[in-house]
Design brief:
Largest sheet: none
Order of helices and strands: HHHHHHHHHHHHHHHHHHH
Number of domains: 1
Shape: globular
CATH superfamily: MFS general substrate transporter like domains
Oligomer: single chain
Radius of gyration: 21 Å
Structural class: mainly alpha
Low-confidence stretches: 1-12
Distance between the termini: 14 Å
Mean pLDDT: 84
CATH architecture: Up-down Bundle
Length: 446
């Protein structure tokens, strides 16, 4: 089979690029849909609640908006991972993008918190399923290990484009929203930001007829040798250790996003120089800080994309990243950066650089430890249970812990809560990573 794929290498080059671009667009909007919640939740709650920032009910709803859609999305991704192995990578990826694009459009037209929550759950569910299908698809495009690792790494760099889109879209919606078509008689920036997430359906409709199925999956399916995926197989003696450890460690990585990164927009309006500005200027500052956050994530993913091509060992790489984060996170959110908005934006760039490396690490690691017929199922279990079910609880923990944390302002209380959560999950990951298995150079097929 490997010889067959090598022989096709040049002929498939064009289609490989088409798949790479499709997956990249999907990754960008996946990240946009998940992270945009942190940006829009404050003005959304003020308008539809209406609740005031700093109150217990506001913190509760903020936590729920960062928690519930992702948990629902994670549970949906379990089914999506199974379907990826059962009916094919291409089909699941395409329809998951269509699903979240439609739901994103509808969420921007919602008139109540419960309606927004409903459509956000469907949106994030589609994004979570797309991620699993795209990773499995990209992994099987080429037999050469270095080329495979490079494609996985650089495709995930596209995810940071979604972060930059949030900064740009939010700035445009806040600054020029009054000149845009009204929605329900108003020009709320959060509505435009949510509707923007429907855009990936447009190029997908155009290129869908040209997208091929994974050659490895297709050939095994045609030959009748593709085993049926079963969740219980993940807990057999040969896979139990890697299933449990990757689920825990992926959960800790994404807990940094939900318990720390997604709360950064809530900190910015309370920074000393920003608090004295008008509400519109404060939201422009949120966009400006977002650009620095996104730059850090982009640099981190590029660093990882280079490291995985040239360095074989994975566990030492992860442990060094965790050690750096353990020192950096409390230094930023408990230190002098909280007293200066200009220092803060560069400090959070470093924070997201460290977290961005971890994101891409798991995108490259997971496909290498599960066999072909369980690749989507295994990835979806680690991502769904760890990243989408356990990790979102940290959004609730951070939001509610902020109510009782010490601090002279709501922003400081929230920042202190973020630091506590980040240190706790990083310590857990550092201890657990001692037992993480090293994957082999070749992809496991059975």
């Amino acid at each position: 089979m490997e010889a067959t794929l090598n022989a096709r290498g040049n002929a498939l080059a064009g289609k490989q690029w088409l798949i790479f671009i499709t997956a990249g667009i999907g990754f960008a909007f996946d990240m946009y849909e998940i992270v945009v919640q942190a940006t829009i939740v404050r003005p959304l709650l003020i308008e539809l609640g209406p609740y005031q920032p700093g109150t217990a009910v506001f913190n509760h709803w903020r936590g729920m908006f960062l928690f519930l859609p992702t948990v629902i999305g994670g549970l949906a991704a379990l089914a999506g991972g199974y379907l990826t192995d059962r009916i094919g990578r291409q089909r699941v990826l395409v329809w998951s993008i269509v699903l979240y694009a439609i739901a994103a459009f509808m969420s921007g037209l919602s008139t109540s918190l419960f309606e927004v929550m409903f459509w956000r759950c469907i949106t994030v569910a589609g994004a979570c399923v797309e991620f699993v299908a795209a990773i499995a698809w990209l992994t099987e495009l080429h037999p050469d290990p270095k080329r495979r690792e490079a494609m996985l790494g650089y495709a995930q760099v596209c995810a940071t484009i979604g972060n930059f889109m949030i900064a740009g879209v939010w700035y445009a919606a806040v600054t020029w929203g009054d000149s845009m078509p009204s929605i329900h008689g108003g020009h709320s920036a959060w509505r435009y930001a949510l509707i923007y997430g429907a855009l990936p359906a447009i190029p997908l409709i155009i290129i869908r007829p040209f997208l091929p199925e994974s050659p490895l999956w297709r050939e095994k399916k045609a030959a009748g040798t593709l085993q049926r995926p079963r969740f219980r197989e993940l807990f057999t003696p040969r896979l139990r250790r890697v299933t449990l450890l990757t689920t825990l460690l992926v959960g800790c990585c994404y807990a940094l996003a939900f318990g720390m990164l997604q709360h950064i927009p809530g900190v910015v309006p309370g920074l000393p120089q920003v608090a004295a500005l008008s509400p519109k200027e404060q939201q422009q500052w949120v966009s400006w800080v977002h650009v620095h956050v996104d730059t850090g994530a982009l640099i981190g993913r590029f660093i990882l994309a280079g490291l995985v091509v040239w360095f074989v060992s994975r566990r030492p790489m992860l442990r060094w990243i965790l050690v750096i984060g353990l020192g950096l996170f409390p230094l930023v959110f408990l230190g002098p950066a909280m007293n200066d908005a200009d220092v803060f934006k560069y400090a959070v760039l470093l924070v997201t650089l460290v977290v961005g490396i971890q994101y891409s690490f798991w995108g490259n690691y997971l496909p290498r430890v599960f066999p072909l017929h369980l690749r989507g199922t295994g990835e979806s279990f680690a991502m769904s249970i760890g990243a989408r079910t356990f990790a979102p609880f940290m959004a609730l923990v951070t939001a509610n812990l902020a109510t009782v944390m010490p601090g002279a302002s709501d922003a400081l209380k929230l920042a202190h809560s973020m630091a506590v959560v980040a240190v706790a999950v990083t310590l857990i990951a550092l201890v657990a990573s001692r037992w993480l298995p090293e994957p082999g150079a070749e992809l496991p097929e059975d």
